[in-house]
Structures are given as structure tokens and as C-alpha cells.
Amino acid sequence: MTAGTREWASRNPEAGGRRTTDVIRNVARDAQGMTSNAFLVTGRPGSRAPATDDGEPGRRVLVDCGANYDAVAAVREHVDDLDAVVVTHTHPDHVDALPALREAFDVRTWGYDTSHDAVDERLGDRETVQLGTATFETLHTPGHKNDHLCLFDDENGVLFAGDLVFADGAFGRTDLAEGDRERLVDSIDRLRKWVAGDLGAIHTGHGRSIETTPEESLELSARAARV
Ligand SMILES: [Zn+2]
């Protein structure tokens, strides 16, 4: 592990404690400026079947890019190349580092709204995308922003929640353009049903990840957002 990053070996107790072979690192963790988290997902060296054509142990994918830090250097601390970028939504603090990443890695991006400059490839509701060696499914979750997606790997219990919910019962702001509290509440409710019984860890767009009683944390956020 390198200073400034953290690795999660996510575990889903409901699934008999199986451990994912993938590594998830927040490469924006030490950034000083205003930025979202930026999670680099990679296969673990020596893990089973290589998932990429060039022999990497998994698809090297960045979930959100962050902003106002040297994202290229932060990624290169861990991998030589990036296979894809997936954005949970297109607020500037999640995508501003993208031009530098595109230039350095010639990488394509997946997201909900291809009319936005940051999104090359459409990732709709209930579609799948490979991160590391795991298959994640998408859920369209508007309320914070219209193009917001959550990503869930039900086998390993890993959820990327973007800015829909945060730790300690917090939830995404709805006072910006496209913000809508009722839609946010509905999205959290659908998310809770979707992950019920399988959730092991939530990686959020800001702040710390939620690895202790994540479903209770979602319930807290759902309740708080109704007030
Ligand atoms: Zn946002």
C-alpha cells in the first residue's frame, strides 16, 4: 500500500465472507483542493483469469476523476495505463481531471448522458460494466443530478454511490441545477431495495467509505432526506 491511498478488500458477510480479488483505491484521497473521491479499481496481481487482452489481472478503471489535483500522477502510482473511466455523474468536481487523464491515457469514458463532453459511451439504467474482475450493474438514481448512476457488484457486495448518499446518514445536495429532493428520496428507496441482503461496502463520492452496517447507513440517509 502506498501512502495516501487505502486499499479495500471488500467482503460480503452475507455471501459467506468471500473476498473480492480486486483492489479499490481512492487516488484523490490526499488532494488538497475541492474534489470528489476518485476510485481506481484494479485486479489483484496473481488473481485468477486475466481479464484484459494485455495480460493485466483485471480491467483498470477509474470511478470518477476528481478535480484540482494531479490525477495522472495519482493513477500512475499504481498502474501504467487506464482501460476506462466511469463517471457517476458529471458535476465538475467529479470530471474536471478528465482532460488530463484523456491526454495521458487516451482513455474513453462511460456515463449516463453522452450529450455531456465528459461522456463518450452510454451506460444506461440496469446495464453492466466490468471494473477490475468484477461485473457491476448500474442503477439510474436521479435527484442530485439527472445523469446520476450508482454501480453495484452483488457478488462482492460493493456499491459505488456517487453523491446520492454519504456516511453518517448524509445525502446528496438537491439545491443545485437538476436537484430534486423527491426524486432523491425515490432513488435512495430504489437503491435500498436493489442492494438489500448483499451489501458489504459503500464507496461514496465524498468522505469516507461505509464498511460497517452499510444497509443501516442507507436507511439513515433515506430517513434524513425525507425531513
Ligand atoms: Zn455532485
Question: Which tags fit this structure?
Answer:
alpha/beta; six-stranded mixed sheet; five-stranded mixed sheet; 22% strand; globular; disordered N terminus; binds zinc ion
Describe the overall structure:
This protein has 227 residues and is an alpha/beta fold. The protein has one domain: Metallo-beta-lactamase, Chain A. Helices cover 20% and strands 22% of the residues. Strands 3-4-5-6-7-8 form a six-stranded mixed sheet, with no helix packed on it. Strand 12, helix 4 and strand 13 form a beta-alpha-beta unit. Helix 4 runs antiparallel to helix 5. The termini are far apart. Bound molecules: zinc ion (ZN). Zinc ion binds next to loops.
> How many strand elements?
13
Largest sheet: 6 strands, mixed
Distance between the termini: 41 Å
- Under CATH at level 1, the class stands as Alpha Beta
What topology, given as strand order, has the largest sheet? 3-4-5-6-7-8
CATH architecture verdict: 4-Layer Sandwich
> What is the N-to-C succession of helices and strands?
EEEEEHEHHEEEEEEHEH
Number of helices: 5
Q: Which bin fits the share of residues in helices? A: 10-25%
Ligand catalogue: zinc ion
Structural domains: how many: 1
Q: Provide the CATH topology.
A: Metallo-beta-lactamase, Chain A
- Class based on secondary structure composition and strand pairing: alpha/beta
